[in-house]
Amino acid sequence: MKGLNKKVLKGLSFTLLSIMLVSLMACSQGTAENSSSEDGNEGTVELVAATINPSDSHLAQTLTAFAEEIEEQSDGAITVRVHTGGTVGNASSLYQSVISGDIDFIYSDTGWFAEHNPVFNILSTNYLFEGQEHFESIVNNDGKLAYFEDALVENPGLKTIMYAGGLERDIISTFPIESVEDLKGKAMRSGGSSAELDWWQNLGANPTSIDFNEVYSAMQTGVAQGSQNSLDAMIEQRFGEVGKYVARTQHNLTLGFVVMNNDRYESLSQEHKDAIQRAADIIQPEYISKAFDLADESMETLENDFGVTFTNPDREEFIERSRIQTMELAEEYGVVDIVEEIFFK
Known about the structure:
- The chain has one domain (44-343): Bacterial extracellular solute-binding protein, family 7 (D-Maltodextrin-Binding Protein, domain 2, 3-Layer(aba) Sandwich), CATH 3.40.190.170.
- Helices cover 45% and strands 19% of the residues.
- It has helices spanning 6-27, 58-73, 91-100, 132-139, 146-154, 194-202, 215-221, 231-236, 262-267, 270-306, 316-332, 336-343; strands at residues 45-50, 78-83, 105-109, 158-173, 187-190, 206-209, 226-230, 245-261, 309-311.
- Strands 1, 2, 3, 4, 7, 8 and 9 form a seven-stranded mixed beta sheet that branches. Strands 5-6 form a two-stranded parallel ribbon.
- Helix 2 runs antiparallel to helix 10.
């Protein structure tokens, strides 16, 4: 290795990256022609699925189980290669890749969809769901989120295949939170979405946009005094080492979409579409239920392994301020009746 200069190493890196991308694109290009043969028998279809979530995370395990179930339901006629942990791109590139058709499936948070449909900012607001029963009554009810599903098909051309999530999001911080007043003036980490920034401001905090990979160091150095995350993310990223308090606000129950390039979906035979739908019908409710079951286990881990103290602030003020944001956005986008019908009926 000592004999290789920087130009050679750079050239090798570029070559390896090119090979990986070409291989990924080739895997995703099982076209409609190989979905059926001339005698009417179904052929083998190869699909590619990806997520930035690490392989041992609940959301990545959901996508992996979904892929395995597709193969089971299709009797091996469909194979799905799953890439986890952002190994084939970050969240932005995965989103662009499923739109272009270079990747067939991705798991995505709703925030990315707002790039093409700002109305999806509403799904990034908080306290849309009262709890598990309410969450499941919406996502497991065919047609309940049809407005958003139709919007995705229209632009940017994505088919909603399955919902995933149900993970509880709370606030981890370097100081105890007993009420919304405790957030006044505090430097809280925010992602880049306007919905999250506005939420923190509505709570009286001073939000700072910080990349997710920098949250640990930001809290360690005092650049940020807290962050809102799912309990499992607090464990995976070891935030409990730098933030010793978790306020169980339960302000968000993760609503994620497993989407597929719509042109690719429509190119499949009806038999293959049916196999994918049967797999979704099995995996979606099972893994959403598991997500809710994880809350107690995650709390125990944070308490015992990280020494985190949980507080239970009065949520009424959090709910009231959050609801104002949701309805202001609904009015801005002209969907007040739709939002009230789906979430607040």
